[in-house]
Amino acid sequence: MPELTGKLSSDAASIADSHASKGTAKETTVTRTNTGDCVSTDGKDTNDATTKDIESGADTEPPALGGKKMFGVMVALALSMFLAALDNTIVSTMLPKITEKFQALTLMTWIISSYVVASTALQPIYGKLCHIYGHQYVLLVAHAFFLAGSVVCGASKSAHMLIAGRTIAGVGGSGLMSMCFVVVGDFVPTARSPMYLSVFGMVWAVASVAGPLLGGVFADKTGFEWGFYINPCIQGVVIVLIVLFMRIPRPQGSAISKLKRIDFIGIFAVVASIVLLELALTWGGQDHPWKSAAVIVTLILGIVLLAVFVLIEWKVAKEPIMPLRLFKRRNTRLMFVSQAFFGMSFFLPIFYFPLYLSVIKNSSAISSGLHLISCMLAISLSSIASSILITKTGVYLPFIWIGVALNTIGTGLFALLGTNPSNGMLIGIPIVFGVGVGLAMQPMMFCAQNSVDQQDVATTTTLFMTIRMLGSAIGLAIAQSVMQNDISPLLKVIAARFPDQADIVYGIVSDQSIIWESNVPTDVRDAVIEAYVKSTHKVYLVFLAFGGLTFIVSLFAKNLKLRQNLGGAAAE
After folding, report:
1. Which of 94, 296, 376, 557 is 20 to 30 Å from the Cα of 455, by its Cα?
2. Among candidate residues 399, 401, 402, 432, the one with its CA nearest the CA of residue 415
3. What is the pTM of this model?
């Protein structure tokens, strides 16, 4: 670890020197060719962020962070990543207790999706806002939202209040996560960024292991509320570090001029679209039939607003939050498409696994957390390994292909878990799944970032993460709809067989532990467990299809040379 710390500091200093040399370079006159490239008057290609910014009048490249300042910033970012990762993983083992306390299994989707939807909807704007208001200010605002949301979640008296808190926390959580990658993308060349991102990988490893365990402890011992109150305790330290070390000069301009640069219409369109799509997918088959007017109208409005958003970004917005020029880059375009499918398959099984264990084994939250450790460690360690190897070799496509393939295979193996699985299956299958996720996750981002101009890296990063999270939100809603639609008729059959136990049979919808009460006959319990497992298999088969689509799309990408400096783009 000391060796890595020293390397980060020396590398940061070299980046600072690189920026300093850029600042002393002679000024050249820039013109644009018919192809859109920037060319200097002496005929040399100047297709880099600095010349494009000069030509367009946009903010010039931000100053580099070097030495101790970069180290302090990395610590602050690492702790921010820890909070975001912890908040993602800690809920999985608390979810059974949350649904039991509030009797709200039907609202389980929104306990998860409210955070995901808020994170997804706000994700695209962070990359743009940090170039308008400055990295430090934007990150502090994100922490403020995250802190407020965590307090509301901890103080929740109902499922609806908890959902509101998760929504507020999601607004901040999207910034905590995305700003880590935005800062590295803005100040570190793509060729060296895997080393920095491996730090986030190690932090994710610690948080991913600690999350399920802490969630289990809080749920079983102190109350799940402390799973949310833990966030403000850590945030105090993080905020101090951000104030002390992230002293990056803010972009110049009046408050009014900065407000004019924000694409408010585009933000409204994309947020409304995401919320409407999520509502339609959540309602379908649960609160309303799929053929109902409520579902159909909401779904159509969501799709229409998504089309309107694209039109706004194309024709109206002066500084779009989603510049369509990004889609002209082959690898970036392919990675965006792959993330939509990858988001549907890479994270969701982790949420269903604890629920599955609570039904078939009456597992406690702590026990479920222990079963998740193998998956989280596999994700984290394989992510670190792929980052280090990519830094040394410059090759990233094989990691994407192998990772997605293993992830898809692991998802299929989840569908083999029956009513009495062996411990080997409960540990081994999550490991296969996790290794695949870890190998592919970061290389996909490198692939997308490396194909665009430096000035577009931040926007590409946040859009990349937005698409992944939108895929997760849509995938979760689809999975929940499949689960509810499949298990309902099965429970009706069981209730008809055991009419005197009908309340117990239907009770699993709101409380999984009810079938393990001492007064429940064994044959009723076995029938309900079998029905639940069959429905879970259907859900994993949906995830399997999404994983297969991710693999197919990734096959068309090219392995381009990683960018060695903070300018230009890799040729395609």
Report:
1. 557
2. 432
3. 0.78
